[in-house]
Amino acid sequence: MTDTSSEGLDIPSPDGEVNTIDTDYEVGQDNLQPTLGPLVFDIHNPVFLISSLTTLAFVLVTLIFQDQASAVFNWLFTFVTTKFDWLFLSAANVFVIFCLFLIVSPWGAVRLGGTDAVPDFGYASWFAMLFAAGMGIGLMFFGVLEPVYHMQVSGPLGLEGPLNDDGSVNPDLVAEARAHGLAATIFHWGLHPWAIYAVVALALALFTYNKQLPLSIRSAFYPIFGDRVWGWTGHVIDIIAVFATLFGLTTSLGLGAQQASSGMHYVFGVPEGLNTQIIVIAGVTCVALISVVRGIDGGVKLLSNINMGFAAVLLLFVFFAGPTMQILRDFWSGLSTYVVDIVPLSNPIGRDDASFRESWTSFYWAWWISWSPFVGMFIARVSRGRTVREFITCVMLIPTLVSIFWMATFGGTAITHVIEQGTESGVYQNVIENYNDSLAMFAMFGDMPLSMITSSLGIILVLVFFITSSDSGSLVIDTITAGGKTEAPTAQRVFWATTEGIVAIVLLIGGGLTALQAMVNTTGIFFTLILLVLCYSTLQGLRSEPR
């Protein structure tokens, strides 16, 4: 990495030719630097103050009015998913088309960091970090659950599932149902979510490394708003980004806590319920604080590599111990069916599959959009030196293929078990009837050799993904609320890592999974509009860059 700029803010100076933006704004000029005993803070005024105080008020109100809060969260989730599903689906399609256009356009040759910049991380570490941050807990929670559910309740295309009401299997419907079930799952974990991440990450990397602006969401809007991004226009953008990140992340933490709690009950007999989930979140948050203090190299990079190692071991075990040839067939049939189904599944209007479109796709797109400031800023921080074409290809296409293989392996194995057993397995039956069942992955392990070992490894992997997400999220929120400073005092990252855990606990108390989904969908609406404008601003920035 090259020497940092004169302000000492750890934004590397460009290598080679770039077209920087001249502005009188100095990073941190609006910051306050209060002290609390030995703790020193460096906070952006007013982004940090409004974000933190609003979050504190939200926590207190939810705890004081728990019963009323639960009803409000249920109403909010239903309202957003049914009234704004068209917005989420349409916007996600725009992001995919925008990214594919950049890959083949002349601007794909623009290098992030300057024409002579070289990558800060090798492919292995880079891919491990972006993948662990982008999909970790979700793949563990939904990798078995969703393919099994969509195989039987094949809502998007109106197909009939192969399981009869009496628990028997209709063999004539199996092949088509499992292919379309996997395709529906892949749709939620493929090009669309990674395109959302790529849009944000590319904009942040371009305007930070090439334009030499602060590493903050507002910087990417400079071509549109000019110096107004340093005023209230930018404040509003960053505050929305903080809330989107916070609630997007706490949704994942809630899912991780539920799955870890269910897994520990299933494997070790640990009492299951809200109290265990709270203890899991508190414990993981404490470990995440250690990682926060250690920084990217000693913390999140190390944990991401551990994640990928454990995930690879688990994936390969299921692949070879499970129905290997069927998994390979599922990979191909799922991928090819996904290519065919992606257009009707992406269509935002004139559809009859309201349950699939609203309860699944609308929530997923809102979730990915809420995660995009967090994942996008994190990917931007570790992606200097890549060309735009290389960046988008790796960030969008390669993780999609890995996700497809993961779903074919875990989901395909579970579907095979279900077809062989019918609905004799109580856990699988619960998965089909209630798709929020966090035991799905452990039910699959229970039908395989070495189930105690694989289930224990699965619990560990969920927890490590949990820690990595909390660490990465606090790093990103801290950067935004520090006015773009990438090396703000550690106390601030500790504050945000603790806040994430508290908000996740409060939402679980105030309404469970529905409360988490309601908040992520609500913040996702506002950030969707911001991202649509961001695409235009990014294109304007790329047009002025040497390539």
The DSSP helix count reads 16
Largest sheet: 2 strands, antiparallel
Low-confidence stretches: 1-9
How many angstroms separate the termini? 20 Å
Strand content: under 5%
Structural classification = mainly alpha
The quaternary structure here is single chain
Number of domains: 1
Shape: globular
Order of strands in the sheet with most strands: 1-4
What is the top-level CATH class? Answer: Mainly Alpha
Helix percent band: over 70%
What would the CATH topology be? Amino acid/polyamine transporter I
Query: Rounded to an integer, what's the Rg over CA atoms?
Result: 23 Å
Task: Give an overview in words.
The protein has a single domain (34-544), classed as Amino acid/polyamine transporter I, CATH 1.20.1740. 72% of the residues lie in helices and 1% in strands. It has 16 helices and 4 strands. The strands form 2 sheets. It has a two-stranded antiparallel ribbon with strand order 1-4.
Task: Present the secondary structure layout.
Elements: E1 31-32, E2 35-36, E3 39-40, E4 43-44, H1 47-64, H2 66-83, H3 85-104, H4 123-152, H5 174-189, H6 191-210, H7 222-225, H8 232-268, H9 274-321, H10 324-346, H11 354-381, H12 388-421, H13 426-433, H14 440-446, H15 451-481, H16 490-543
Antiparallel strand pairs: 1-4, 2-3
Protein name: Betaine/carnitine transporter, BCCT family
Family: Belongs to the BCCT transporter (TC 2.A.15) family.
Organism: Roseivivax sediminis
Keywords:
Betaine/carnitine transporter, BCCT family; globular; cell membrane; BCCT_transptr; 547 residues; Amino acid/polyamine transporter I; transmembrane transporter activity; two-stranded antiparallel ribbon; mainly alpha
